[in-house]
Design goal:
This protein is α+β, with helices and mostly antiparallel strands. 36% of the residues lie in helices and 30% in strands. α2 crosses α3 and α4 packs across α7. The radius of gyration is 20 Å and the shape is elongated.
C-alpha cells in the first residue's frame, strides 16, 4: 500500500499494472497480484479494470492505516508534541450532538473518562485549511481516550475517541472523533462543561482555535 501511496494512490485513482507494481516491489507479478487481492479484501484499496491494466485507489480506511504508521514512526524518531492546534469555523448542526451527549450511556462515560459533565450539545467546527484537515487525520492515528460502543434501549451507540482540549486556550473541553457520523474529515465536534457559544460569544462563521492535549 505504501508503494501505491507513493505514486499518488491517496489523492485519487492511479493506473498501474501488476507488472509495474511487481517491479516497484521487487517481487513476481503473481505475488504483486496476490498482495493487491489481499488489500482489496481488507477494504484498504478499490480496483477497477481499465485499458491500461487497473485503476487503484486507497480507501479511507487504507489512508487511516498509513496515518497510523506515520504517527508511530514520528513517535519513535521525534519528540512527542504536547499539544496540537486545530482551527475551525463555527457552524450549526442538526441537533445530533445535543441528542447524543444527552444519552445516559455517553454522558456517564464522558464523566468517568474526562472528569466533567458535558453541556448537552456539541460545538461544530468546519476545518477550512488543508493543514487543519491533515491535523484532524493525524489525530485519528494518535491514541486518545476511548469510549467503546455500547447498547442502550435496544440500540447500539458507536465508539468515540476523545482528546482533552483547551478551547481558545482557556476553556476545558474535549475534541471528539466519532465513528458513526455523517460529517467528513473536515469537521470536528467539541464538548465542554459550559455552553461554548455563550461563554465565548460565538456565532456561525467565526473561527475558533482548539489546543488538543496529547497524553
Amino acid at each position: 500500500m505504501y508503494e501505491i501511496a507513493l505514486v499518488g494512490g491517496c489523492e485519487g485513482g492511479i493506473d498501474i499494472s501488476s507488472t509495474r507494481l511487481a517491479d516497484r516491489l521487487g517481487v513476481s507479478q503473481q505475488t504483486a497480484a496476490r498482495r493487491l487481492q489481499d488489500l482489496e479484501k481488507e477494504g484498504l484499496i478499490v480496483r477497477e479494470i481499465t485499458a491500461k491494466g487497473q485503476n487503484i485507489k486507497i480507501t479511507k480506511e487504507g489512508v487511516r492505516r498509513l496515518w497510523e504508521v506515520y504517527v508511530g514512526l514520528k513517535r519513535v524518531f521525534e519528540e512527542k508534541p504536547q499539544t496540537i492546534k486545530v482551527k475551525g469555523e463555527v457552524f450549526s448542526g442538526m441537533g445530533e450532538g445535543r441528542y447524543y451527549v444527552s444519552i445516559d450511556g455517553y454522558r456517564k462515560r464522558f464523566e468517568e473518562k474526562l472528569g466533567f459533565t458535558p453541556y448537552p450539545g456539541t460545538l461544530n467546527l468546519k476545518l477550512k485549511s488543508y493543514h487543519d484537515v491533515q491535523t484532524r487525520r493525524l489525530l485519528e492515528a494518535y491514541p486518545g481516550i476511548i469510549i467503546e460502543e455500547f447498547e442502550e434501549g435496544g440500540r447500539t451507540f458507536g465508539r468515540v475517541k476523545c482528546f482533552r482540549a483547551l478551547i481558545e486556550g482557556k476553556i476545558e473541553g474535549s475534541l471528539l472523533l466519532i465513528n458513526r457520523t455523517h460529517y467528513g474529515d473536515d469537521v470536528v465536534e467539541i464538548i465542554s462543561p459550559v455552553f461554548l457559544r455563550e461563554a465565548l460569544n460565538l456565532k456561525d462563521g467565526e473561527n475558533v482555535t482548539i489546543y488538543v492535549i496529547l497524553e
